[in-house]
Structure prediction request, 313 residues.
Amino acid sequence: MRADRVFAYGATAGLLGDLLLGDPRRGHPVAAFGRAAGAVERVLWRDHRGWGALHTAVCVGGAAGLAALASRAVRPSPAASVALTAAATWAVVGGTSLGREARAVGRALEAGDVDAARERLPHLCGRDPQALDPDGIARAVVESVAENTSDAVVGALVWGAVAGVPGLVAFRAVNTLDAMVGHKSARHRRYGWASARLDDVAGWPGARLTAVLAAVAGDDPRGAVRAWRADAGLHPSPNAGPVEASFAGALGVRLGGTLSYGGRVEHRPVLNGSGRAVGVHDIERAVRLSRRVSRLALGVCVAGRLLSKGARP
Prediction:
């Protein structure tokens, strides 16, 4: 079986598996990678960019190398190749869990239980929940759904289409490392530099595809494109900016503004300033938009892989 068809069947099965099963409660491969990366950090950590770059190379290279070996081992069997691609896709995407956690916060807010919403919010993002009122919590959820649609679904599918199972695994490894060490804490400001920059590079194509598909699938395509063009560049993240701006325009809401991470207050530019404030009901709208974007991304990535294969001599 051709590699493009292996990806098409396997990625579709993997995304369906995520839809039906979500993430496993125990033994998640991404969690296992995180523990391994943490162990490597304990050995290598120095307050130096070079040691951080070595950490990134060891972790990402090791994950991608194991994935490549597994792909080569099953290559003689089309069924095993499809099964491996499906398992890898299911392991690295997280759209169902993203929607589940977002809806859990939304239900708590709808019930007026702000304390429960604050307790649940760290499952989605690193904001300081105690610093947020109900509207701030809702905005944080919508922003997290937007950004993680790219990070947890679309970006992985893009790299899977490019490089098969090693691409899927490597992207997830890069994204996980960025979450672990890519932030600007005192410990990781230098050590996490390489992971953060690599995540910017790896996330670039998926973020742009997510922004395009949010405009296509949203309620206001023109508003999404307008917000993307006007405001994406104002965001401190080169990849979150297009995604969040496009989601904001597609949903007709304002995102960005003041937020707090780890006791540090940041004043970010407002995205889609002509939109209204985020309400609790927008959480469900954002989750539905994320689902539509994910399905479209699968179609685009599968079609791109099939067409690129067919165009080769």
Q: What stands out?
A: The longest strand covers residues 264-271. The CA atoms of residues 142 and 270 lie 14 Å apart. Strands lie at 255-261, 264-271. The longest helix spans residues 134-181.
